[in-house]
């Protein structure tokens, strides 16, 4: 809605432009973009022909108690989904006479090995920049070690603290979340198959085949099949030094003077992975100033923005587009 308000404001004011502004409203992002952005890319590519950039949701200015300055994020990459399925197979039987290698038992042990496996972290340069700038606004010694993650993660105490944050952990490695389990339809029947659906999120620079092979080695059971259930969404990245990125950073500074602007790799994903595959530089941008309470509302209970954020955000978005595209 913020993008629509900004485009309408420029249209109604008959602002002369030096480049096209395309407003594209797409559905289905939460389900993988197949009938939204991906459909546009496959069936209506001419709609975005010649476009250089795309802007999506997320990215905001966070104000947290104790920090020395607000932290403003611009999303430059996203961890995309690799849907995995683990299927364990064995003989069926009656629940009164179990044995160690039933399909559900095999699956449980396989999942335990997978979740206990320590996939090595990868510190992308953009991720290191994020944490270095985060360290600059944290009070006292809370940011100690964040300016050199490769070295700091060799220290067991630092490593335990760092990976104790699910968000920090997700920013530096491909993750695996068990989200769906299926076994027997009846309590007293041991099924011939047991299935687990895994929400795997890939870090930029890693590929589906390598990840799947790693999972197979971690599972270490030839009676447990590992498969990719739908076409993977390859993660990609846009540079934090383009003309648009600089305008986005200026817009955040105008919205919150003194803000420290950082590039962020989003642990979820938006439609931008599709548009990057089409050759555009894609960024997640939101000129909102959020405190802890408002941040917790994102995809949570009572999700909403304050009227002040909406009004000021629409103005900031309009001014940013004017700076980028105004003649």
Question: Could you give the topology of this structure?
Answer:
Blueprint: H1 2-12, H2 37-43, E1 53-56, E2 61-62, E3 71-78, E4 80-89, E5 93-94, H3 103-116, H4 125-137, H5 149-152, H6 156-163, H7 166-172, E6 175-182, E7 189-190, E8 193-202, H8 208-219, E9 224-228, H9 243-255, E10 260-266, H10 272-277, E11 281-284, E12 289-290, H11 292-296, H12 307-325
Radius of gyration: 23 Å
Uncertain runs are none
How would the global form be characterised? globular
Order of helices and strands: HHEEEEEHHHHHEEEHEHEHEEHH
How are the strands of the largest sheet arranged?
10-3-2-12
User: Count of DSSP E strands?
Assistant: 12
- Major sheet summary line: 4 strands, mixed
The assigned structural class equals alpha/beta
Count of separate structural domains: 2
Provide the residue-averaged pLDDT. Answer: 92
The share of residues in helices is: 25-40%
Output the CATH topology of the largest domain.
Answer: Aminopeptidase
Helical region count?
12
- CATH homolog superfamily of the largest domain: Zn peptidases
Classified by CATH, the class of the largest domain is: Alpha Beta
Distance between the first and last residues' Cα: 24 Å
Strand-residue fraction?
15-25%
Q: Per CATH, which architecture of the largest domain?
A: 3-Layer(aba) Sandwich
């Amino acid at each position: 809605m913020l993008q629509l308000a900004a485009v309408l404001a420029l249209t109604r004011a008959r602002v002369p432009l030096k480049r096209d502004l395309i407003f594209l409203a797409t559905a289905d992002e939460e389900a993988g973009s197949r009938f939204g952005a991906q459909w546009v890319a496959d069936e209506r590519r001419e709609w975005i022909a010649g476009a250089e950039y795309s802007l999506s949701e997320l990215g905001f200015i966070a104000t947290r108690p104790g920090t020395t300055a607000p932290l403003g994020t611009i999303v430059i990459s996203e961890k995309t989904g690799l849907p995995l399925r683990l299927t364990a197979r064995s003989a069926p039987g009656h629940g009164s006479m179990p044995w160690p290698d039933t399909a559900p038992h095999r699956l449980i042990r396989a999942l335990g090995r997978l979740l206990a496996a320590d996939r090595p972290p990868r510190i992308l340069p953009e991720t290191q920049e994020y944490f270095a700038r985060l360290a600059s606004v944290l009070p006292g010694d809370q940011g100690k070690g964040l300016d050199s993650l490769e070295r700091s993660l060799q220290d067991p105490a630092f490593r335990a603290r760092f990976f104790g944050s699910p968000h920090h952990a997700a920013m530096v490695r491909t993750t695996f979340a068990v989200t769906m389990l299926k076994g027997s339809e009846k309590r007293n029947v041991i099924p011939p198959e047991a299935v687990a659906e895994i929400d795997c999120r890939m870090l930029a620079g890693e590929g589906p085949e390598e990840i799947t092979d790693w999972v197979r080695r971690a599972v270490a059971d030839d009676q447990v099949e590992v498969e990719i259930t739908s076409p993977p969404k390859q993660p990609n990245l846009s540079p934090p030094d383009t003309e648009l990125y600089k305008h986005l950073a200026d817009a955040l500074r105008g919205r919150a003077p003194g803000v420290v602007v950082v590039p962020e790799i989003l642990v979820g994903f938006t439609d931008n992975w599709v548009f990057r595959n089409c050759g555009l530089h894609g960024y997640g941008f939101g000129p909102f100033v959020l405190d802890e309470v408002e941040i917790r509302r994102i995809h949570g209970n009572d999700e909403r923005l304050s009227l002040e954020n909406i009004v000021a955000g629409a103005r900031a978005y309009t001014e940013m587009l004017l700076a980028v595209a105004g003649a």
